Amino acid sequence: MRMKIKINKYIHTNNFDETYSFANQLRNYLKIIDRNQKIFAAEIDVHVTRLSRILNNKENPSVELMYRLEKHSDNV
Predict the structure, then answer these.
(1) Is the Cβ–Cβ distance between 3 and 25 less than 8 Å?
(2) How far apart are CA 76 and CA 69, in angstroms?
(3) C-alpha to C-alpha distance for 44 and 15, rounded to whole angstroms
(4) Does position 3 have pLDDT exceeding 90, yes or no?
(5) What is the dihedral of CA 57, 46, 42, 66, to 10 degrees?
(6) How many Cα atoms within 13 Å fall on the side-chain side of residue 39?
(7) Which of 5-9, 55-59, 62-66 has the lowest mean pLDDT?
(8) 3 state SS of 13
């Protein structure tokens, strides 16, 4: 919940901050739920290589992936 509040606060600042990039926030989420990339990729049904590319800003997440993340986080 704390992560959600911080992101909402950031959105209202209208300033870009690299620490709030999608990849960084997804990395923080993995730490919060205490999962490694391989296990998390299996849980959201994404190839571990694709997850790695997203975490390293080499690929953007799809809408489908966003829905999977929302479901994984219990709609938070």
Answers:
(1) yes
(2) 9
(3) 31
(4) no
(5) 80
(6) 6
(7) 5-9
(8) coil
Identity of the residue numbered 58: K
Euclidean distance between CA atoms 47 and 9, whole angstroms: 32
Model-level pTM?
0.78
Both structure tokens of 26? 């997804």
Q: pLDDT digits over 9-22, tens only?
A: 767 777 776 777 88
Q: Are the beta carbons of 21 and 57 closer than 8 angstroms?
A: yes
Which pLDDT score is estimated for 74? 85
Tell me the two tokens of residue 29: 């989420």
With tokens 């919940």, the residue in question is: 1
- Rounded CA separation 42/7 (Å): 26
Is the distance from CB of 50 to CB of 59 less than 8 angstroms? Answer: yes
Q: Which residue has the tokens 């992101």?
A: 7
The pair of structure tokens assigned to 62 is 């799809």
